[in-house]
């Protein structure tokens, strides 16, 4: 059974290809959803997948791409939301 998570990543996560790397990881992990930068310098992710897929994905978010320096990951469960694929949301 799939579930949806809100994942808020803080640290040096903008300007380091975090959104693109997140999309690539999500696609490899069969996770749908979206990723966007926030105005306060964080990266916000909404991800839908199985608990096992999401657990691995959240672990990846704690590290991120090579140039990222993650200082915090806040995870909250959301009501299930269907997404067609995984998209980068740009302002």
Would you kindly provide a written description of the structure presented here, covering whatever features stand out?
The protein has 91 residues and is α+β, with helices and mostly antiparallel strands. It is built from two helices and five strands. It has helices spanning 18-28, 51-61, and strands at 3-12, 32-37, 43-49, 69-78, 86-89. The protein has a five-stranded mixed β-sheet with strand order 4-1-3-2-5. A hairpin with a 5-residue loop joins strand 2 and strand 3. It is globular.
What topology emerges from the helices and strands here?
Elements: E1 3-12, H1 18-28, E2 32-37, E3 43-49, H2 51-61, E4 69-78, E5 86-89
Parallel strand pairs: 2-5
Antiparallel strand pairs: 1-3, 1-4, 2-3
Question: Number of helical segments?
Answer: 2
Number of strands: 5
| Alpha-carbon Rg, integer | 12 Å
How are helices and strands ordered from N to C? EHEEHEE
Helix fraction, binned, reads 10-25%
Judging from the principal axes of the Cα atoms, what is the shape?
globular
Extract low-pLDDT stretches: none
What is the SS-derived class?
alpha+beta
| Largest sheet descriptor | 5 strands, mixed
Strand order in the largest sheet? 4-1-3-2-5
Distance between the termini: 32 Å
Q: Quote the average pLDDT.
A: 97
How big a fraction of the residues is strand? 35-45%
């Amino acid at each position: 059974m799939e579930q949806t998570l809100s994942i808020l990543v803080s640290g040096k996560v903008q300007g380091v290809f975090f959104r693109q790397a997140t999309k690539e990881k999500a696609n490899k992990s069969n996770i749908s959803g979206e990723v966007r930068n926030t105005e306060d310098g964080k990266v916000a992710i909404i991800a839908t997948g199985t608990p096992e897929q999401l657990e691995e994905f959240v672990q990846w978010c704690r590290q991120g791409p090579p140039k990222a320096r993650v200082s915090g990951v806040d995870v909250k469960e959301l009501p299930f939301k269907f997404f067609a694929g995984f998209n980068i949301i740009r302002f």
